[in-house]
Design brief:
The complex is a heterodimer of chains A (268) and B (415).
Chain A (H helix, E strand, L loop, with lengths): L30 H14 L6 E11 L5 E11 L7 E8 L7 E5 L7 E6 L4 E5 L15 H4 L7 E11 L2 E10 L6 E9 L5 E8 L4 E13 L3 E11 L5 E6 L3 E2 L10 H5 L3
Antiparallel strand pairs in A: 1-2, 1-13, 1-14, 2-3, 3-4, 4-5, 5-6, 7-8, 8-9, 9-10, 10-11, 11-12, 12-13
Chain B lengths: L15 H14 L8 E15 L12 E15 L4 E12 L7 E12 L3 E8 L32 E10 L2 E9 L25 E2 L8 E11 L2 E11 L4 E7 L2 E8 L1 E13 L2 E11 L6 E12 L8 E11 L11 E10 L7 E9 L5 E10 L4 E11 L6 H5 L5 E9 L1
Parallel strand pairs in B: 8-12
Antiparallel strand pairs in B: 1-2, 1-21, 2-3, 3-4, 4-5, 5-6, 6-7, 7-9, 9-10, 10-13, 11-12, 13-14, 14-15, 15-16, 16-17, 17-18, 18-19, 19-20, 20-21
The chains are: A mainly beta (268), B mainly beta (415).
């Protein structure tokens, strides 16, 4: 039980994107309509990747700059018309090695999540209610790592801003889930490839909480962009977490049958 | 966590030679086809120090401190992209006081073969069934290694042949269980035992095949929406023995007797918002004893991020019932369990669980505390404490544990 519910990183797809699609918002549209169009374009640009495997290394840093690391591998299956299915396996630290996490994320209903505890050989269905809780003690919460779905927020386009990729949309997002840890998020999304370069998070009291910054993206299969390294800084606690992604493998042939309680128990 | 009080320990080693003989043809059959074999070594070493509040009430228990050491490495070989694998997990514990607690077991020696929808497992392994926290009523496949862990959560490796099929209608598992493992019991110098030592060298069986009896089990489990549930049927040797009085070298001892049973069981959990609603139930029949039903049911409600912190607090309440009432071999015959679980969500994964039980028939009370924390990348520490207050001398088992209140500190090194 010391291994908490670890929400698997479904993707970070939220932070990736590609495609093109959105036309410049027409003058007659409201900022809310314009924001929704940007969000839809973000989602649209990341459709069709089917399945992927990658690894992540999290470097957790406290206010005194002391570091600890977490290593996770993840497999993700794209589900048409719903959230993704994902399986994460923990490798480090060693006491959580072999712990695995299965998640079926959904666009409008709570996610289904199961945790496998290898010492007991026990699979536990866990509540997905704790989405604002920290992921493996890091500055990322489970909801920060969940797959991006348009329905999870309402939107407002604030304007445009310079960003590392040139010009970005400045998009404000309001979580629709009452259990979200945020009142709003402001993201910078580049106009060419719909990649999310930076997100600022405001807590339930609408105070500045965290900033997520992506250092670099890598493009796969000539279309899908994935973050290579990103950093979350908590302004209130002065703690931070870096996430460094390994190489993504797409089209590895994952199937629905790779995401169930049997595959969770034998995850290596 | 803690099934703190279902037990009736017992011990016996697995016949290693038989098992290896069994596995040999499989090893040949499944010899690596692809050149790429992955090998991984992991595991843990632990040191445990226990202090009892007082000396025990029986001969051999005249000590208040105990120490022990355990090693559990895990060797893993995978091939065919891990669609085939062999896992070998031996276990050794050396205990300073109790020679019965010093023991060796093969927790796992298993070949697994996976296809798209099927999974086959042959060898020795462990299987967990169930949803409740204070009692594991339906967890019948493996024998409890009660000398290793007083709470019954440690299990002995069980020889098994399993076919498992994943379908849209859920997962179907068929088990053939050749070879029975006798329960481990504390020896004369061990704590957590009754006044009579269990003679583990002379168990008797209802079936003439004794520990060679082949048991069978079938299980169907499924997840639908917020519900996870399972149904099973089991036919074979009951894991919990009946303890009968006998004489050994002129002293009275308890002799385990294992009967044949047919058992049907159910487990279900509904996961709704912050609630986990849990139910386990069994119906057991045998030739020599009256048929009975038993159940364990309750809930866990979690308060997330209490007082704007990262700390979660879970409240647990369960009730254990057994139709046999005070005659039940199980301790959870009419018992209420209340517990709380703090999860700090810090970088050290600190967790604290406490629980209490109250026996409505005998008015006995027990309390337990389990706290754990990661010290660094390789070391973890755990603190466990338990208190038993037997109010009724009729509750003979708990009465014999009355002086076994203790606190244990365990240091674990993972590799």
């Amino acid at each position: 039980m010391k291994l908490h519910t670890v929400k698997l990183h479904t993707v970070l797809v939220a932070l990736t994107v590609q495609g093109a699609m959105i036309t410049t918002p027409a003058i007659a549209e409201t900022p809310e309509e314009q924001g929704l169009k940007v969000a839809q374009a973000v989602k649209q640009s990341n459709i069709g990747w089917k399945d992927s495997e990658t690894s992540l290394k999290l470097v957790l840093r406290n206010a005194a700059n002391q570091e600890s690391t977490r290593e996770v591998r993840s497999k993700t299956l794209e589900v048409e018309g719903d959230g993704d299915k994902s399986l994460s396996i923990f490798d480090h630290p060693r006491d959580v090695k072999g712990t695995a996490f299965l998640s079926f994320s959904h666009t409008t209903t709570p996610d289904d999540q199961w945790l496998y505890l290898p010492a007991l050989k026990r699979v536990k269905r866990i509540a997905s209610r704790n989405k604002s809780g920290p992921y493996m003690g890091s500055e990322f919460s489970y909801e920060d790592l969940a797959s991006f779905e348009v329905e999870k927020y309402t939107y407002k386009l604030l304007g445009e801003k310079p960003c590392p990729a040139g010009t970005c949309y400045e998009l404000e997002q309001y979580p629709t889930d009452k259990y979200s840890g945020y009142t709003r998020l402001i993201s910078l999304i580049d106009k060419d490839e719909y990649r999310n370069w930076q997100t600022t998070f405001y807590d339930r009291k609408n105070s500045l909480l965290k900033t997520l910054t992506v250092d670099s993206f890598k493009q796969y299969q000539g279309q899908f962009w994935r973050a290579e390294k990103m950093t979350m800084v908590n302004h209130q606690t002065k703690k931070s977490t870096d996430v460094i992604f390994g190489e993504y493998k797409f089209g590895v042939g994952l199937k629905d049958s790779d995401f169930n309680k049997n595959s969770l128990k034998r995850a290596k | 966590m803690t099934d703190t009080f279902t037990f009736l320990p017992k011990r016996k080693r697995v016949d290693v030679q038989t098992l290896f003989t069994c596995l040999l043809p499989i090893g040949l059959l499944a010899s690596p086809l692809s050149a790429e074999t992955t090998f991984e070594l992991s595991g843990k070493v632990e040191v445990e120090a226990t202090v009892f509040q007082e000396e025990g009430q029986f001969t051999g228990q005249d000590y208040q401190e105990n120490g022990s050491f355990a090693v559990e490495p895990e060797f893993y070989w995978g091939w065919n992209d891990d669609y085939d694998s062999i896992t070998f997990k031996p276990f050794v514990r050396v205990d300073a006081q109790d020679e019965e607690r010093s023991h060796v077991d093969i927790r796992e020696l298993l070949w697994t073969h996976v296809t798209d929808d099927w999974e086959f497992r042959v060898g020795i392994s462990k299987v967990f069934w169930g949803v409740t926290e204070f009692n594991h009523l339906i967890d019948i496949i493996n024998q409890s290694d009660t000398v290793d862990s007083f709470d019954g959560e440690e299990k002995l490796g069980q020889p098994m042949i399993v076919a498992s099929k994943v379908t849209d209608m859920g997962i179907f598992d068929a088990y053939v269980l050749p070879g029975f493992r006798e329960r481990t019991f504390a020896g004369e110098d061990g704590r957590f035992r009754s006044g009579f030592v269990v003679n583990t060298d002379n168990a008797t069986y209802e079936d003439e095949d004794e520990e060679q009896h082949i048991d069978f089990a079938l299980r169907w489990s499924h997840s639908v929406d917020v519900f996870d549930f399972g149904l099973y049927g089991f036919q074979g040797t009951d894991r919990a023995p009946i303890l009968r009085s006998a004489t050994k070298n002129g002293t009275t001892v308890l002799q385990p007797h294992y009967q044949q049973i047919t058992q049907f069981g159910l487990d279900a959990q509904a996961t709704i918002d912050s609630w986990l609603l849990k139910l386990e139930a069994i119906a057991t029949s045998s030739d020599d004893q009256e048929d009975y039903t038993a159940s364990q049911a309750g809930f866990e409600y979690t308060f997330y991020g209490i007082a704007d912190s990262l700390v979660d607090f879970g409240l647990l309440l369960e009730y254990g019932w057994d139709e046999r009432g005070e005659e039940a071999s199980s301790i959870a015959q009419n018992d209420v369990y209340l517990g709380g679980r703090f999860t700090l969500n810090d970088t050290s994964d600190t967790a604290i669980l406490f629980g209490m039980s109250y026996d409505n028939d005998h008015h006995s009370k027990t309390a337990l505390l389990e706290a754990s924390q990661r010290l660094n990348d390789y070391w973890s520490a755990a603190l466990d404490a338990s208190i038993i207050i037997a109010e009724d001398s009729q509750d003979s088992f708990l009465t014999s544990l009355d002086k076994d209140d203790r606190i244990s500190l365990t240091l674990e090194r993972f590799f």
